[in-house]
Amino acid sequence: MNFRIEPIADKVFGAVVSDVALATIDNATFDELYQTFLEFGFLVFPEQFLSEQQNIEFAQRFGELEFGALPLANQRRSDNGEFTQIIDVDTQRMRTNIGNEAWHTDSTYWPVSSKCALLSAVKVPKQGGQTELADMRAGYATLPDELRERAEALSAFHSTEYSQANDLGDFPQRDKNSIYHGEAYLRPLVKTHPETGVKNLFIGRHAFGIPGLSRDESGQLLKLLLDHVVSEPRRVYRHEWREGDLLLWDNRSLLHRACAYDYSEPRVLIGSRVKGDEDSELAYYPDDPRAVIGRQELQHELNILRSERA
Ligand SMILES: [Fe+2]
Q1: What is the model's pTM?
Q2: Which of 32, 34, 157, 245 has the most CB atoms around its CB within 10 Å?
Q3: 182 C-alpha to center of ligand 1: Å?
């Protein structure tokens, strides 16, 4: 091995990788790292201090990007490139960030969900603001047989309009070019990882409306499955950020969430997100006849949530 791997103590997943410089890594080392990533589900690379361009270039080794070096920050960038002015917590941008404090996997509300994500820490608050990860592979493997068989047969719709409404009571302005686009994508509750062949649960805050179940049954089952995944400390890791860290995780098999912090204190993470493969991460596109029902189910669900909160 061209680097050092230290599995995270007392966890069923994750490793810290050191003695490697991601900015200048060669292809052979990347191939080894890639296998390590598949095996552990997430990797922590301390003290990398990647520039935004280096973050993008490393991310591109994993595939086509959804976005590269996007500031996931509570500060606006001023003309000189520095992050300065704190963004008001009532803005849509901060409400979206705060929504991500509930367990989710990225981009399940797009036709093609994400393959993996990378975050580089630039500014870290004194307290809170950690990133937590949870292993849906071990979550699936430890389900009671009856529940596992039940989950195998079911799917749920995914929408971030749903999750913002359900988690925060927010009903953001709909815009088809934003993440609040009015579509909901149906995805099976159990996913077979396209590269390892290992099965995992595939759930999170964006999931709702399991076809064939009542609204209550669906909500209860999704909650039961999520609670199962995160109830065992060995399946949950909390990353205490240090400036310069890079965190990489597999969105096909892990949940994650941000932890709350004092929003008046700067927190700047630079994120790149890699697109999933159409063969394994595509639900369908909005012009597909199957999209109609998702759109209707979302509208129906939002109407209920609105009336519940009126
Ligand atoms: Fe996320």
Answers
A1: 0.97
A2: 157
A3: 19
